[in-house]
């Protein structure tokens, strides 16, 4: 199962040690001030990441190092409402209220929504069956409400009917090499996109003025920055810079240079992950 910055499965899903208990975490965070989910070591010290802060907090509560394994690696600036992770804690710490304990230690923009005993055999990454991302657009260039600024791409007026027509070409099982940014080695660039939908009510026609538009992308996995590149392609169609009928040829080319610019990170949110 792939997400925005996730490679193919390169390791065997580890089991739980006899003296450990696996805890499933559901997480929400604002990604604005973080260098993404994944810990990134540098000679001058690690960058500030969501995973890094979670592991620091978990180690304090468990009084031993704890590895937090996420379902996917969100990029710098990307948000989450339903990120899922797991951690193996000492069996003697199962009585801890892990949600409360972690939220007490974490910054206000990272929250544990739920902490629960994981089902037998659960693995946050390898067990994921389906993931959904939301991307928010603000359809005015005059101003963006400050409360929305960190969470939208202010892109101006768009022809949503053209975008809806273009979105149909992004669905199904196909090779999405043209929508994959470099930087991750993969066994395959083939993914199944179940649905690309505009969720905003009454979003048909040409949208003018101040309005938020929300798009949903649901798939069995995503290549590196695939959602942001898909959104960039749909916005290009909405601006009239390409025809919806151009998209099959863009995908068939398997060439990232054909698909145009990547949409900004701040409009993207990992919304939910399905395991059943």
| Shape field | globular
Q: Tell me the number of helical segments per DSSP (H or I, 4 or more residues long).
A: 5
Rg computed from alpha carbons, rounded to a whole number of angstroms? 20 Å
Gap from first CA to last CA: 13 Å
The SSE string, one letter per element, is: EHEEHEEEEHEEEEHHE
Portion of residues within helices:
10-25%
Q: Structural class from helices and strands?
A: alpha+beta
As a percent range, the share of strand residues is 25-35%
What is the average of the pLDDT values? 90
| Low-confidence runs of at least 5 consecutive residues | 1-12, 201-205
Largest sheet: number of strands, sense, barrel closure: 10 strands, mixed
SSE order and pairing:
Blueprint: E1 20-29, H1 50-62, E2 68-70, E3 79-90, H2 98-105, E4 110-117, E5 130-138, E6 153-154, E7 158-159, H3 160-167, E8 172-175, E9 190-198, E10 206-207, E11 212-219, H4 226-238, H5 247-253, E12 268-274
Parallel strand pairs: 3-12, 5-6
Antiparallel strand pairs: 1-3, 1-4, 2-3, 5-11, 5-12, 7-10, 8-9, 9-11
Helix pairs in contact: 1-2, 3-4
What descriptive keywords fit this protein?
276 residues; alpha+beta; globular; two-stranded antiparallel sheet; disordered N terminus
């Amino acid at each position: 199962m792939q997400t925005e910055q996730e490679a193919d499965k390169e390791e065997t899903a580890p089991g739980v040690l006899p003296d450990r208990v696996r805890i499933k975490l559901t997480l929400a965070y604002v990604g604005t001030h973080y260098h993404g989910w994944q810990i990134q070591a540098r000679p001058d010290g690690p960058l500030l990441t969501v995973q890094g802060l979670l592991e620091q907090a978990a180690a304090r509560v468990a009084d031993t190092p704890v590895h937090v394994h996420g379902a996917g690696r969100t990029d710098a600036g990307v948000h989450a409402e339903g990120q899922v992770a797991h951690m193996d804690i000492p069996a003697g710490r199962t009585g801890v209220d892990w949600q409360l304990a972690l939220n007490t230690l974490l910054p206000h923009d990272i929250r544990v929504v739920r902490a629960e005993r994981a089902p037998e055999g659960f693995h946050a990454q390898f067990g994921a069956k389906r993931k959904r991302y939301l991307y928010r657009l603000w359809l005015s260039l005059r101003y963006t409400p400050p409360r929305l600024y960190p969470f939208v791409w202010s892109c101006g007026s768009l022809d949503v009917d053209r975008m809806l027509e273009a979105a149909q070409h992004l669905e199904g099982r196909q090779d999405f090499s043209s929508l994959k940014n470099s930087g991750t080695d993969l066994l395959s660039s083939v993914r199944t996109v179940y649905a690309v939908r505009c969720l905003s009510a009454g979003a048909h026609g040409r949208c003018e003025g101040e309005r938020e538009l929300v798009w949903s992308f649901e798939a069995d996995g995503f290549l590196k920055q695939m959602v942001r590149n898909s959104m960039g392609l749909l916005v290009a169609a909405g601006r009239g810079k390409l025809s919806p009928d151009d998209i099959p040829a863009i995908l068939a080319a398997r060439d990232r240079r054909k698909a145009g610019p990547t949409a900004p990170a701040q409009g993207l949110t990992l919304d939910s992950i399905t395991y059943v």
